[in-house]
């Protein structure tokens, strides 16, 4: 979730810019960023996320009500891969429904938080673009703001997810709604005026004093996302744009009740493998 010009624990102030960033650089930068910032992230957002709650984004859309993976009673016995699991809150909720989840994340430190909270399911530290599983290993896959916003080649990830899913399997993933890239990443009124081209796919990069990327986020338009999904061999069965609920008074980076009541902040793609 993009938070521009954030201070870094190592003491320097990263420079925020827009420039190209390839697969290897993006992976290296984001692994390092999440390892360094996992503690702060869990402190800041852990209460909202809970230890065993499955929310799709800052709006608070909960899988209990959304049932995007299917009715909770149908999850029992299902083998589920969570990609970009962080502290594995979603996987923990899935396990409570009787599913058999595996929680995967690029960041070793994020998975240490998963160990701290606990759970009886496997934790795997790996890149989503090279999943360490055999073909057809899972019935379902999910990713709540994990991996897809941070990779230079989303089709590589989508093809890998399709490979490890069994025929008829479902993959549901959420990302920052593409329209947000046209607006400043601010929760207040300053975040309501268009400041950039929606069609500019140049990645958002934070780099150190030597020009090395320390954080990278990639923009895809809504049409790009649909084409990526289809090109990877999935069928798109739903696109959910959660509205901001009246009960949610919290701010999360550029997400807020003010902006959430006017423009979408999250897009959730529901895909199936034929």
UniProtKB/TrEMBL annotation:
Query: Where in the sequence does UniProt note compositional bias of the Basic and acidic residues kind?
Result: 1-22
Region labeled Disordered — which residues? 1-36
* Keyword Transferase applies: yes
Q: Which UniProt keywords apply?
A: Methyltransferase, Transferase
Q: Tell me if Transcription is a UniProt keyword of this record.
A: no
**A molecular-function term among this protein's GO annotations:** S-adenosylmethionine-dependent methyltransferase activity
- Give a GO biological-process term: methylation
Q: Using the record's annotation, list all stretches that form the Methyltransferase type domain.
A: 81-173
List, alphabetically, the SUPFAM superfamilies matched. Answer: S-adenosyl-L-methionine-dependent methyltransferases
UniProt cross-references to Pfam families, sorted A to Z: Methyltransf_11
> What is the superkingdom listed in this entry's lineage?
Bacteria
Q: What is this protein called?
A: SAM-dependent methyltransferase
Species assigned in the record:
Streptomyces malaysiense
